[in-house]
Structure of SAM-dependent methyltransferase:
Amino acid sequence: MTTANYPSVYLRKGRDEAVRRFHPWIFSGAIERIEGQANEGDPVRLFAHDGTLLGCGFFEGGSIAVRMLSFGTSITDFDAFFVEKIEQAYRLRQALGLIQPAPEAGAHRNNVYRLVHGEGDGVSGLVIDVYGDTAVLQAHSTGVYHHIERIAEAVVKVCKGEVTAVFDKSSATLPDPSIASVGDRFLIGKSTAQPVYENGLQILPDWLRGQKTGFFIDQRDNRRLVGQYASGRRVLNMFCYSGGFSLYALQGGAEEVVSVDSSARALSLVEHNVALNFGDTIAGGRHEGVVADAFEYLKGIAYGAFDLIVLDPPAFAKKRSALKNALNGYRKLNALALERLAPGSFLFTYSCSQAVSPEDFRLAVLTASVQAGRSVRILQQLGQATDHPVSIYHPEGEYLKGLFLYVE
Ligand code: SAH
């Protein structure tokens, strides 16, 4: 199909402002008419009311009706398009020092990184995470999924010799999972999960059965920060998943680290990872793993038992409609921790709900501080790791928010 054959989507008068400022989402309410038959996932050309070409994107048909891929021009060659986007993304990760696979990189050794972060890398609906020699793809849109094999080839081409296997894990992220009728699978090569390196620490990713693509890469910079302030502290890592924060705290000289998650499978990953780095699952008596509900566990701990707590819960608000309940959840959780921390403690608290703004989250933690009656100071405001860039034109991409607090 040449671009002239792409269906043409015309916007209502005055509804072209956001897309002219490079916002990549076209909402269904902004569309006046469509010329030609646009099916979900098809490439379409987008026009302003006066007929000016605004760009090209994938038709999605939902409330986000079109995800833009180019602005001002159309796309003729999708092979070249994906190679170019992935090359740009790879160069940024290189510039950030995140591609350090060789053993001699030592403490800097790093071969786990997010290669493509959706809109932040100019491809709305696509996530690519690299775990050593394996890239894991997740399509969040039908249009992207239609090109998944081409994307896999582009990754291997760009990450020359480094990535040799590409796994598609889109069944959990597609708006309509039935289009992934073949299920999750290797698109190129084959591999089994091997430990990867993050800042010199070893971690076993679990892309087959694990959450997201197998690991929470977005917390890398925050984990390093925890490691920096953990020396001599009694650390509680709540919602630990595979224990990333625990590893950095142990490495940073924590006196004691307790990792808590409601999933027994997560805890077995933590113990595996602790043993990989510190010789045994208890790190010479400094580490303990607990399977428990976070709220129940926090209620049961004594005042002053910990002087560094990490709270990294799953998204409490998956949708805007759930915002009020989510804020209540963050308030309760933070109050439980704030009421129990020893004087002179650090609290690292996060929200990964996209629907919760940094201001909302801060207000929830403020309310928790009032409820706990503690003196609380903000030391730093935190966000997602540098390989999860946010397009300045797409503030919705800033989903991970955190506060580094000092509690007296
Ligand atoms: N901090 C982790 C990522 C956390 S993901 C990291 O850096 O890798 C959220 C985790 O919370 C998941 O592992 C999930 O099993 C766990 N979880 C969800 N609800 C929970 C609850 N009520 N109590 C304890 N853990 C819970």
